[in-house]
Protein 1
Amino acid sequence: MAESSNTRQPSPSPPPPAPISQTPGPRASRLHQVFDQALARTLRANSYQNFASCFPTPARHVPASLESVWRQLNAKLEESAKAEFTEILTEREAVQHLNELDRLVGEARARKESEGENGEGHATRAAPHTLGAEDLYKAHLMPYLQEAQATLNDKLEATHTQNAELAQTVQTQRIEIEQLLSQLESVIGDLEGAATAATQFSKEHHLRQDAVQMDEEVNARVGL
């Protein structure tokens, strides 16, 4: 008996792609790691010792309060940096795109290994008509994702370099401030010495005038 013409044939359309995971994959995790390292280096550059050296008077008289301000400043800096980084990742959908890049690279690597095992010298490409619109779109998007990742890595590296230069600038300015304070203390010492000498001279001058006046009075009485 012939099969019914109503029997459905398997659809040639490919199955829908699996949803992209929101959990950071290898590249997204590495991006988080690079950011955390750069932020940690920035916070280490703003150590309490460097911070206190810019405020010697509060550091000498109210060190506990100054340290509390320093901790709040670092905490606010860390919180703001992480919030801005998270906002950028969300706006650019960086985690999803990097995860998709991981998937595409993994599939390409698997095909290459499969071709090597089969002894094929040329790549076996999937027929375009068997791919869904999303797969075609992502295949064209992969070079852009790679370029975006390279650009982001360059920006992170540039930020790290700028942070190191900023730390060096802060250190140089701290040394200049210490030199100016040392010169100011020397000038204050000279002024205090000059004031002491002027006071001593004034006292001796008054004593000399008193002695002359007493001598004139004695001479005047003797003359009488």
Protein 2
Amino acid sequence: MNPYRSLPARSFWRSAVAGADLSTLGDLWTPAFPLDPDASVLTAGSCFARHLGPALLDHGWNWHEVELPPPGLTGAERAARHYGTFSFRTGNIYTAAGLRQWLTWALDGVDAPDEVWHTDGRWFDPYRPAVEPDGHDSVEATMAARAVTLAAIRDGIAGAGCLIFTLGLTEAWWDRATGTVFPVCPGTVRGTFDPDRHVFRNATVAEVHADLSAAVALLRAVNPGLTVLLTVSPVPLTATATGEHALAATTYSKSVLRAAAGQLAQEHAHVDYFPSYELITGVPSRGVFFAPNLRTVTPEGVAYVMRHFFAALDGRPAGLPASAAAGAPTDRSAAGSATAPAGTRDGGDLLCDDAVLDYYRAG
């Protein structure tokens, strides 16, 4: 007799993975705590996280979009200004350091730097340079818009039941002068790169864990009943500043994020990890949920992730019924022929700030 004799089938590679296909793969996630569909659920994080809010709404959940668009905007204008993307108009938050920074400004009484970027007579917020694509007409308007978002974060956190945060990157550019982190490298989406001021850092597991721990502590200080569900984006790096091959750099980044998120979930009963990364990039999917650019996750992939999410929360048995897996492509050509997700052009994702880095590729 040994401990392995009593383990369930999900614990063994042959039965849980090699012997499964997309229609039977299941039981990947056992929720650490219940989620109330009627309670306010907040979403933030990398560009992959923008899929979560609409999916929650479609399933009848109370996804809370705290910052609502002003009347009169078209659908395209709302999307361009990041309304309906996340619960707050922070733009994409790719790193744990970025999440900690926004929460420190909103919840801990720390003032954000008053620096703005000026381009062609318009002013932009360095910490969300793509949220207002046409910029603001004054420094004061830029600061006022940021103040609205910080107030929305405070109000949203205070009344929320759960925050779902999707980690995207370990690589980031920092400001030596202010000690702050940018969502993208200055001089790409907006701003001007200063090699004496802007420094590149690639976070370690310990650093990501420390930032996540601090972020969760800030959240729970404001709302002791709040739970946090972490995920890791399956979207690869568009480009790496490490000097390594993009594939190796992506593996490092995702491995670090996965390890830090898993460690935090083991340490706290109010923190959990959902395996969206594994569902899309794992061996059983054979890459079918990526568009031809091998980066953008197809609508079928998003739907597949959300079906696993809701099945686990609803307490359904392991594995998906055939009807639930009917939309999953079975080969790469099927995935490549899928309709491109909203916000994409020529295989590139326009709602991912770092997608602009592809413009600088060689060749």
